[in-house]
Design goal:
single chain, alpha/beta, Molybdenum Cofactor Biosythetic Enzyme, Chain A, Molybdopterin biosynthesis moea protein, domain 2, Molybdopterin biosynthesis moeA protein, domain 3, six-stranded mixed sheet, 7 helices
Length: 412
């Protein structure tokens, strides 16, 4: 397959979805260790949540009809019949014309169907003056309102956030089945690349920026990362380091090659790894920046070849690397995450037939994001530092106009 036989971004994403098979391996982890892991099983409610009807305010449990018409000038007068204590059940049946104090989270007594906030009441000996009417179920969470026994609470494939962990905790779960934690193998290549901690570098030599940004992105997405020393522009050295990572990891990412240079061994190395089935699927993408991108599958493992320019590599890894990992992890509903809408601050031209990703800075203007392009050459890392995300201009368009609503992919 020759370079410059490029494919659209949409085609590349379709190929990835078709070729990558989600992992079926699961592991059980303690609930407190499950943050950002991908759920491996449907979570079905084994009990009603909440397990009893409770108040969401401090106030008085009442029969709502007893308060109809109540106002500051014409309060309803109800008989005070005690209080509900936190953490205790109440077996008293509330009668019409009665009110019982209940704290936030306290159980409602049978016979009541609403709670009047304490600031709308005045307790006077055995009488409660109610200065505001309440509707049925006002200030109340009913038994099973969050979930009833048998309800699907969390579907598998969901990346677990604190709120999902809270839902699991509400059911008494102490452990959870999650998808196997993926390991990303990352390899920088090129004779001109040296480790980033080199203090003195000769002219023509550059520090390994991608060796920091790409693994850091992987870790920020909650994946494990393994790396090796930088590969030289020599097939045996390049292949040996790539194979070490390929054999130990679930995904291999290579940066620094993928051009048309005579000493670029990226394609040769990719084709020598595993069973090379189906092999190289993408070699060139109609996208700016990041045209020299490669995607291959071998022995069921994805291999992604990134451009060498740090800015291009980071953008392509954000676009395609995260997609690869999410599919392989079995994560659902990924497309809508880390995206927002914004109003573009100025006209931005674009060449049709190519998807452009423009670095932008976002500012909040009365609840609406304004996207301002961060100008600079594509290889400059500082433009990424100054950016909040990537404004996408589809291949069908010749640019976007000032004031147009656009899609912005947020940086992780």
């Amino acid at each position: 397959m020759k370079f410059f036989k490029v494919q659209s971004v949409e085609n590349v994403l379709t190929i990835m979805e078709r070729e990558i098979q989600p992992t079926t391996e699961l592991e059980e982890v303690p609930l407190e260790a499950a943050l950002h892991r991908v759920l491996g099983e449907d979570i079905v409610a084994t009990e009603d949540v909440p397990s009893f009807t409770r108040s969401i305010v401090d106030g008085y449990a009442v029969f709502s009809k007893d308060t109809h018409g109540a106002s500051e000038t014409m309060p309803s007068f109800l008989q005070s019949v005690g209080e509900v204590k936190m953490g205790e059940s109440i077996d008293k049946l509330l009668q019409r014309g009665e009110a019982m104090y209940v704290p936030t989270g306290g159980m409602l007594p049978d016979g009541s169907d609403a709670v009047v906030m304490i600031e709308d009441c005045e307790a006077m000996d055995e009488v409660v003056n109610v200065y505001r009417s309440v509707a049925k179920k006002e200030n109340v969470i009913s038994k099973g309102e969050d979930a009833k026994v048998g309800d699907l609470l969390i579907p598998k494939g969901k990346r677990l956030r604190p709120q999902e962990l809270g839902a699991l905790a509400s059911l008494g779960n102490t452990t959870v089945q999650v998808k196997k934690q993926l390991t990303v193998g990352y390899l920088s290549s090129g004779d001109e690349i040296v480790p980033y901690d080199e203090k003195e570098i000769a002219p023509g030599i550059v520090r390994d920026v991608n060796g920091v940004t790409v693994p850091s992105l992987s870790k920020s997405w909650s994946y494990d990362v393994k790396t090796t020393a930088i590969a030289k522009d020599d097939f045996d050295d390049f292949y040996g380091k790539a194979k070490e990572l390929f054999d130990r990891c679930d995904v291999l990412v290579i940066s620094g090659g993928s051009s048309v240079g005579t000493r670029d061994y990226t394609i040769d190395v990719m084709e020598a790894l595993g069973d090379n089935t189906p092999g190289i699927l993408v070699h060139g993408v109609s996208v700016k920046p990041g045209k020299p991108t490669i995607f291959s599958m071998s022995s069921g493992k994805p291999i992604l070849g990134l451009p060498g320019h740090p800015a291009s590599a980071m953008i392509i890894y954000q676009l395609f690397g995260k997609k690869i990992l999410s599919i392989l992890q079995g994560e659902t509903n990924v497309a809508v995450k880390n995206m927002t809408k914004a109003i573009v601050s100025q006209n931005i031209p674009s060449a049709p037939g190519r998807t452009d990703f423009i670095r932008v800075k976002l500012e909040n203007d009365n609840g609406q994001y304004i996207a301002t392009p961060v100008l600079g050459k594509s290889g400059l890392v500082k433009t990424l530092v100054d950016s909040d995300g990537l404004l996408e201009i589809s291949e069908q368009k010749e640019g976007v106009n000032k004031g147009e609503l656009v899609t912005v992919h947020l940086f992780s």
